[in-house]
Amino acid sequence: MKAATQVVDTPRLLWTLAALVLTSLPHVMHLPWWPFVLMAFTVSWRLAAITGRYRLPGVVVRLLLAAAGFAGVLLSYRSINGLEAGSALLLVMSALKLTETRYVRDLVVLILISYFLIVTQFLFAQSVFTALAAIPAVWLVTTALMQTASAAPPLAWRRALSRSGILLAQAVPLMIIAFVLFPRFSGPFWAIPRAENAAVTGLSDSMSPGSITELLESEAVAFRVKFDGTPPPRKDRYWRGLVLSNFDGRTWSVFKARDRNLNPDTLQPLSNAIGYEIMLEPHHQHWLFALEQADPASLPRGSYLTNDRRLTRNKPVTQLYQYRVESWPEYSASLTAADWEMRRDTQFDTRLNPRTQELAQQWRSELSSDAEIVNRALYLFRNEQFFYTLSPPALNRDDAVDEFLFQSRRGFCEHYASSFSLLMRAAGVPARVVVGYQGGEVNPYTGHMTIRQSDAHAWSEVWLPDRGWVRVDPTAAVAPARVELGVAGSVPDGETLPSLFRASQLLYNLQLGWDAFNNGWNEWVLGFSRNKQIDFLKLLGMRDPSLRKMLLTMLALIGIVVGLLSVHLLWQSRPRRADALTRLYDRFCRNIAPAEGGRRPAEAPLHFAARVSAAHPERADLIHLVTNLYLDLRYTPNPQTSLSELRRAIRSA
């Protein structure tokens, strides 16, 4: 009977269930709970059915379960398309398939679905953890396939795992060859859209008191940077992200009008450019980050600078995105601005924060220039009793800036940027808030720089007639250490960052090591682009790595590896040379009865002796003597017979 048409037995079913459950568990992180309840229900039912206590559900019950599962996916995602909905539907289908597994071929289908479940994990995340978790899953699923699809009885579990492990190990060289030599696509391989409302830790397109402070609790990586040379000092590492021009009295937000491309002629470099490469974590938005000021001629393909100098991408960043930029530490910008832009950047709600307006108007009447007003505001923050704190008090919603400036005077960067920008607008100075990241940490193991969500920062920009848009960081006036040392070095006494890693030098070093490993994974596995592949092949000695040359080299190397494996397998399966006892007995069997053709395959010695003795009764005694001596030498732990005694008996026979 073929294996596919065999009725399901307990060992094969258990292997299949183990594979299905193990490959389903990682999806708990990003799918709703009910598909797993359905999976547990059908697994329990199938286990009960194999014992004979229950029957598998009939057609009506299966149809009802299928309808319920399909409806559940529609209710959860409003669609059956997309990554999350498709993965949930695949999980539901595999759970329902369990209710009709009567033959081995049904189990094979489930095992193949398990391979698909492993692949879908990489559509959600391509981290090192995902890859490490996939190794035991692939091992178990491959073992289940070997155990189930074979017509032979299943092996013991240790022997089965050993065989499948050897099989997978033999495939590793082929995998490496294909990874290095298979031509890379210009677009990302995992380009499957995610839901627009996917939850991601990071900056948003609006800022209100407390929004950036919340990011301090996150050690998540925002992006990693590799500079061509020496990185700029920390105080100059302002990673520009979003420009917030709208203000309703409490919340700053991005101006929603259609972006206009910046005219590159409005920027002129005053220093040499700094080149660097950024590996940006997915945040499902269109904005990118760069040091001020990004060179418009160096932008990555599919991106542009807006008229407020935001670096924006045409497509949202839904997966790890690597790009290269050059920036000018010093530059000059156009000294002309549109009237509508100036009006927008001086607007505010005159009904709110009256004390702030009064103070700003007083400065306007006392001071003669906008630059003096800027300096007066910084003097206020620097010399009055303002405090930089990670735990600011809650503020009144309507007059939050008034309460901050004249009462609490305790805040984080968003409090200072917001209040400073409003002071400027109330004094008639165009101002806006910029959010991004400030600083970054150099990893001593690899030299790359890591910018985390806890490095999120907000600062202001003001328009000065003789200089254009100028960056002003009021937080630096209150807490200069925030810019020089980062958040960790600027917190007041008695306050600590919510980071376990920074509390212990050992854990901190482990974090740096792990981050270095992650950076290597991102750069050489996930970021192994077409350009990197060509550079790597040139480093290995391949001149002009064209598509044809790479394919031919890959096929040749695969052929060599397959040939070596074939030779190894043939050598392993060769007939083993018999020992002296076996050779002596085999020669006796061939010579004692040449007419009978010697001993037959799988014929036991006693059966052979009986058959040949019946044909040659005159030699029966000698035949049985030789046979008994052989059996004594072969199977008795401490034989009384010697090999020379057997040899003499054979000669006499």
Concise structural overview:
By secondary structure, the chain is an alpha+beta fold. Helices cover 47% and strands 12% of the residues.
Task: List key phrases describing it.
single chain; 653 residues; 5-stranded antiparallel sheet; 21 helices
Can you describe what's shown?
- With 653 residues, the protein is α+β, with helices and mostly antiparallel strands.
- It folds into three domains: 3-154; 206-503, no CATH class; 580-652, no CATH class.
- It is 47% helix and 12% strand.
- It is built from 21 helices and 19 strands.
- It has helices at 10-24, 34-50, 59-77, 83-97, 104-124, 128-149, 157-181, 339-344, 354-366, 370-383, 400-408, 413-426, 474-478, 480-484, 505-526, 530-539, 547-572, 580-592, 605-615, 620-635, 643-652; strands spanning 206-207, 221-227, 238-244, 246-247, 252-253, 267-269, 274-280, 290-291, 303-305, 311-313, 321-327, 331-333, 387-388, 410-411, 431-438, 441-442, 449-452, 456-464, 468-472.
- The strands form six sheets. The chain has a five-stranded antiparallel beta sheet, covered by helices on one side.
- β4 and β5 (252-253) form a beta hairpin.
- α1 (10-24) runs antiparallel to α6, α4 packs antiparallel against α5 and α20 (620-635) runs antiparallel to α21.
- The longest helix has 26 residues, at 547-572.
- It is elongated, with a radius of gyration of 37 Å.
- The two termini are 47 Å apart.
